Amino acid sequence: MNLILPKIIQLPKFLDSRGNLSFVEQLNHIPFVIRRTYWLYDVPGGECRGGHAYRENQEFIVALSGSFDVVIDDGLEKKIFTLNRSYYGLYVPQGLWREMENFSTNSLAMVLSSTEYDIDDYIRDYDEFLILKKDGKI
Ligand code: TYD
Known about the structure:
By secondary structure, the chain is mainly β. It is built from 1 helix and 12 strands, in the order ββββββββββββα.
């Protein structure tokens, strides 16, 4: 895996009979400044999202509702992280291939990103990803 590894980060959790509360702070719970937030919803059963790598962008992915799997691939091995609670998330460093799959009905995936949307930051071709990885360019 990368020098910087993907990892599950637990978030603060305030259990309350009125309803529970969690939160996330940039540079405190996650190691980057948040430049963008997007979310995936109404994902039909069996669909896959993602399927690319970023040169620069780092992410923190939380299952705000329901569950899904995030498959992380460093070019040598794959790891599957199942997200199914809103009080933890997966930190994904740059330079890793990642796919999201097995979305449950009504799941809601929130993604905090370290960069604004930039089409040129995407690597969408898996073979190109493997070459860049092998050459140490990402
Ligand atoms: P994309 O990242 O390609 O999703 P996936 O890899 O799961 O297919 O995004 C899908 C579309 O949404 C794409 O046309 C670009 C647009 N988009 C934005 O405009 N801003 C964003 O922050 C994101 C994540 C996507």
